[in-house]
Amino acid sequence: MGARPLRKLRPRSREFLYLIPVGVLTGAGFASVYIARQSFVSWGSLGYAFFFLALFFAAHFVARFAAPDADPYLLPMTGVLTAIGITEIYRLGPDDAFKQGLWVVVGVGLFALALIGLRRDYRLLENYKYLFGIAAIALLFLPRVPGLGTTVNGARLWVRVGPIQFQPGEFAKIFLIVFLAAYLREKREALARARLKDVGPLLLIWGGCMLTLVSSNDLGSALLYYGIFLAMLYAATARLSFVVVGIALFVAGGYAAYEKVSHVRERVTIWLHPWTTHTVYCPLTGGQALRQDCQSYQLVKSLYSIANGHYGGTGLGKGTFNSTAGKPLIPYINTDFIYSALAQEIGLVGSAALLLVFMLFVARGMKIALQADDGFSKLLAAGLTFGFALQTFIIVGGVLRVIPLTGITLPFVSYGGSSVVANFVLLAGLLLVSHRANTQ
Amino acid sequence: MNAQISRLALVALILLSALIAATTYWQTWAPGSLAAKQDNEIQRVAQFRIRRGLIYASDGKTVLAANRAVKQAGQTLYYRRYPTNGFASQTVGYSTQGRSRAGIERSENAYLTASNANLGTIFDKLTDNLKGTTVTGNNLVLNLRVGVQRLAESALAGKCGAAVMLNPQTGQVYVMASSPSYNPNKINSDKGYASILKSPSACPGSTSALLNRATQGLYPPGSTFKTVTAAAALDSGTFKEDSPFFDPGYCVEYGQHVSNAGNPEAPEAFGHVDFLQAYEHSINAVFCNVGMKLGARAVIDKAKDFGFYAEPPIELPSSQVDASGEYRFEKDGLHLFDDPGQMDPGRLAFGQDKLLVTPLQMALVAAAVANGGTIMEPHLVKKVTAPGGSKTVMKVKPKVWKHAMKPSTAATLNKMMQAVITGGTATGVQIPGITWAGKTGTAETCTRCTVYDAWFIFFAPADHPKVAGAVVIEHSDGGFGGAVAAPIAKQLVQAFLPATSK
Asked: Could you tell me the pTM of the whole model?
């Protein structure tokens, strides 16, 4: 009886109602961190939770105005993910939570801009497809520019302009998806016939991805872009053979990289054999060490952290992330390894629930792609959603030793401005497509 | 295009479900083996996040082990400190930042960290967790008596040896002292630890101050073992208190002379004596003959009735409690054996042969006589209380461990042990106004030398024993049990009895 009247409500009213449990969850999360760590944090910091909620209601009112008929689940699910992320970031370091909060403000701002600016017809983006394509490539190579790029955690992914540091790759991903959606929509028939002339640009993209992989030591992003590309190509052309050939090419390229490029080989070795019983050569120090004390240190510490969560987790605020000497056990814990931190504190129950939210988000995103009625919208929604899913898989799978570990962010959860802002833009894209599909 | 999009959705959802499966693996199957990894520091840190319970002496006031809180990098860690700087150090033990533990700190770790299975503790821990306060372990109250324990430690200071005193009716251990001792606060630093390992010791060749000589020290029992032989003899019915013997100063075993104590060339000879006198004066020749008559099997079986060949069920880590019995020295160390074919019954009967015993075991032999033949389980812990100290989580109840001998045998032995003090080898330790009982022992630690392990086992008062015990002094040059160990026992009994008889 309860569900029926709810179904009759307009989407935005439902969204408003769904945001209420998100608020309760956020409040509970912050409160439990506060309770567990009251000797280290003050009451005042609980204000983050209220501020955070206010932001989501602001986003809701923008959507009410600009995309009233859009899917009512995506924004509350984003709220859950962001809340979980900011709660854990707050637990790991209240100062970072404050910065993350500011980035959420920027994200919501851009989200509002995108929704309002494109509310009439986002499909005009199609006209600027090559601009997006070129922008994507430019952004990807920005960190390679001497003086601009900085190397963090062994990968050259960051650009520093004054005090602001950001990862252009996060935006390149969205631009690339917009470009591919437009390009593939236009060329899909030609591509389906597999004329060499039309396959050319695709080979170009494959080469670009391989170059990224080799030059910036960024296996994760290469896998991500390439995966998005193959998925969208398949969606557009319905040719499974493209996927097979694409995967074969990637495997061949990957194998060559494994043979020729030492850091690629190193990543794979760490993945296959993180623990050694005898000391091996340690490139970090130049001496001999057990691999778990050297190259696979991060991965192994992260696995210990996850394992320490067991079924129920230690409880928010009660995990162990520092040694007895106070030294952090896991580097980059609030970005690449946020999942290891969460898994320890919320346990299997909590991390499975978190992954289910990601799955629901993906399911809603794909439903939007199915409901959309033009090729560009379908490809855009499917690409954005698949990219979101693949990025989650690459980082969490890496942390869980399902695939070799490469550092990228967990959407909405990880600490990091570029990631949060880019993912809010992604959300705006999905809501625009959904609104358009539902109004027709 | 919808068919492809549906398939993409499927692929995406399969990838994400793989993550749930992998998380399940790492959080359910793997944790056990990961927790055991050497470099898993989480396990180490986690144990310092718990505020360990306090350890008190029997008065419930003297704190033997407390905590100091260290706030660091967003976490509060609790490290142990020992306010007494060494009180029954080997028995209380230590819990260090380097993850190692010993003594009660190790054996009672579950109570001290509130990980025991009592419902009340589980509830308290849960509420601690919900309130966000630090999990606090249960407190231990030991049976160790502050005054007598301190007295025992100062009496042993500068010597090498051990003293044990316990209640023969309940098994409560009042004193467990081992010398040389150490300051447990020093264990944690490398320098401190090294200084403990090479602490000046009055016992050449003997090793660490970390050794709990009361439960791990293996000594030849010497004549104190005659108590066990006498129990075997009396229980068998073949011998009585007044059974007559003739002592020429030696006994003949395997065609060779086995002499009484003293100068082997001119041993003491007592002539015509009865069994009580033989015990009173500790005549080896008589016990040698009794042993040969009874056979090694009967003596060893009686020793087992007293608890030999088993680790006494005391609250210490198993690695810190040794069983007593006949030991064979092999390449990889000492090994218990109980094959009578390889024993020398005559020498066994007066406590030489290959017998090695712990002071705790010998205290239990005295306690058996004091308690009518029944040995109670020895207990260091009196009770476990909840944090705050008001609620009792667990109270140790007296429990029978062994039936060592017939009550009539115990009564006879009681008389015989009194005779040792009134007219035998320990007449120097009589206490005015108190009749007590004991047995000396002077064990040879080498052939044809005058360095002995000096023993005294005892209980007091003789008629209603309130305390039984054993004292051993290692490598006492030329000192017999009656002259070296018995006076320490006297001091302890004198200090203890007025306190309890009031």
From this structure: 0.74
How much of chain B is in helix, strand and coil states, percent to nearest 5?
A: 40, 25, 35
Question: In chain B, which among 331-370 make CB contacts under 8 A with chain A?
Answer: none
Encode chain B (502 residues) as per-residue pLDDT tens digits. Answer: 899 999 999 999 999 999 999 999 999 988 888 887 778 888 778 788 889 999 999 999 999 999 998 887 777 889 999 999 989 999 999 988 765 789 999 999 889 988 777 777 777 777 777 766 778 889 999 999 999 999 999 999 888 899 999 999 999 999 999 988 999 998 888 888 888 877 666 666 556 788 999 999 999 999 999 999 999 999 999 999 999 999 888 888 887 778 777 666 666 788 899 999 999 999 999 999 999 999 999 999 999 999 999 999 999 999 899 999 999 888 888 888 888 888 889 999 998 888 999 999 999 999 999 999 999 999 999 999 998 777 898 999 999 999 999 999 999 999 999 999 998 888 889 999 899 999 999 887 765 556 678 999 999 999 999 999 999 998 777 667 778 899 999 999 999 987 554 3
3-state DSSP assignment of residue B274: strand
Q: Is B173 helix (H, G, I), strand (E, B) or coil?
A: strand
Strand stretches in B216-368, DSSP E: 244-247, 250-253, 256-259, 271-274, 325-330, 333-336, 355-356
Q: In total, how many domains does chain B have?
A: 2
CATH number of residue B150's parent domain: 3.40.710.10
In degrees and rounded to multiples of 5, residue A7 shows phi and psi of: -65, -30
Distance from CA of A76 to the nearest CA of B (A): 20
The one-letter amino acid at B251 = C
User: Which has the closest alpha carbon to B227: B151, B122, B108, B307?
Assistant: B307
CATH number at residue B64: 3.90.1310.10
- In chain A, where the domains are located: 127-259
ipTM of the complex model: 0.93
The tokens describing A206, both together, are 């494959």
- Give domain status of residue B33, yes or no: no
Residue B37 inside a domain? The answer is: no
Number of A/B CB contacts below 8 angstroms equals 165
B90 in the same domain as B205: no
Q: Measured between beta carbons, which residues in chain A are less than 8 angstroms from residue B77?
A: 324
CB contact under 8 A, A310 and B97: no
